Amino acid sequence: MQLRHLKTFVAVASDLNITRAAERIHLAQSSVSEQIQSLEADLNAPLFDRTGRKLKLTEAGQRLLDHAHDLLARTEEARAAVAAATNTTAGTLAIGGLETLCASYLPPLLAHFGAAHPAVRLQLKSAGSGELRSGVKSGALDISFAFGEPPQTPELKHEVVAEEELVVALPAGHRLAGQVTVGPSDLRTEPFLVTEQGCVYRQMFETAFAQDGIRPRIALELGSIAAIQKLVAEGAGCALIPRVAASGDGRIVTLPWTGDNSQVPVSMIWHGGRGKRPAVRLFLEAARQQFKPGDARPRRATPFR
């Protein structure tokens, strides 16, 4: 059983979609299929049920997945032990983040860490908050970054490394565009553009207007911040977003939000059982020291034990 085949199996088992798994691990779909078939031949058991429209794990596949993460983690530990004997830090680090953070916050941190530890291979994946937590929990990701503070779980630790200012995005010709700041009472009659229920950006909106008894009308629900900002530019409504997510479109004005919860935390999440790996430990410390993107206000917090 080859380790690269096992890594590919874990990627497919996580996504239950060969196309998405191939994109995530940077392989052609044909290569992913060939590696899965080779692993099945080696184990003499089908790992996926391919009869339906959706890929499913067989019982044998589920049992392999139960062991796969531990096997891969032990492999990384072995690499780290060998690297420690030669006074180098090596291995692979899979980092995840919300798309906004991957595009703005994380590149400087990854570049700095990569220059300081060239033997560590870095991988970056963009995903939603729920998928990021699941990835850290399963071992598909070593560390992830997201807005907000995640729910407490026994196996996951998190630490707030920064706070990002919330702003209201308005069309450039809006009646409030000339103000210095904007608060709930200014927006009671304004149509708002929001993301779908369950999204972290939607949660920011719901939380911001929860305590004042003022809730603007929701005009549209959209699937992305980029789509929301394009519609703001067209005059379809306003939006509440983190400043770092604001586009540079000249047709949009962003004003600081002065209501409750005017800032949103940026959290770093990792698995407590894997946090002692040298590469993980060094990356966590690098993030604490270097994570100062944009106008965010870094804040040190004690991680959950």
N-to-C terminal Cα separation, in Å? 36 Å
**Based on the structure given, which CATH architecture of the domain at 162-263 is correct?**
3-Layer(aba) Sandwich
CATH level-3 fold name of the domain at 162-263: D-Maltodextrin-Binding Protein, domain 2
Helix content: 25-40%
Outline, from the CA principal axes?
globular
Mean pLDDT: 85
Please give the largest β-sheet: 8 strands, mixed
Q: According to CATH, what is the class of the domain at 162-263?
A: Alpha Beta
Which structural class is indicated by helix and strand composition? alpha/beta
- What's the number of extended β-strand segments? 12
Protein name: LysR family transcriptional regulator
InterPro entries: LysR_HTH_N, LysR_subst-bd, WH-like_DNA-bd_sf, WH_DNA-bd_sf
Keywords: DNA-binding, Transcription, Transcription regulation
Domain HTH lysR-type: 1-58
Q: What's the gist of this structure?
A:
With 305 residues, the protein is α/β, with parallel strands linked by helices. It is built from 10 helices and 12 strands.
Secondary structure layout plus pairing:
Elements (H helix, E strand, L loop, with lengths): L2 H13 L2 H8 L3 H15 L4 E2 L6 E2 L1 H27 L5 E7 L1 H6 L1 H11 L3 E7 L2 H10 L4 E5 L8 E16 L19 E5 L4 H9 L8 E6 L2 H9 L5 E4 L9 E5 L6 E9 L6 H13 L6 E2 L7
Parallel strand pairs: 3-4, 3-5, 7-8
Antiparallel strand pairs: 1-2, 5-11, 6-9, 6-10, 6-11, 6-12
Helix pairs in contact: 1-2, 1-3, 1-4, 2-3, 6-10
Family: Belongs to the LysR transcriptional regulatory family.
Protein name: LysR family transcriptional regulator
InterPro entries: LysR_HTH_N, LysR_subst-bd, WH-like_DNA-bd_sf, WH_DNA-bd_sf
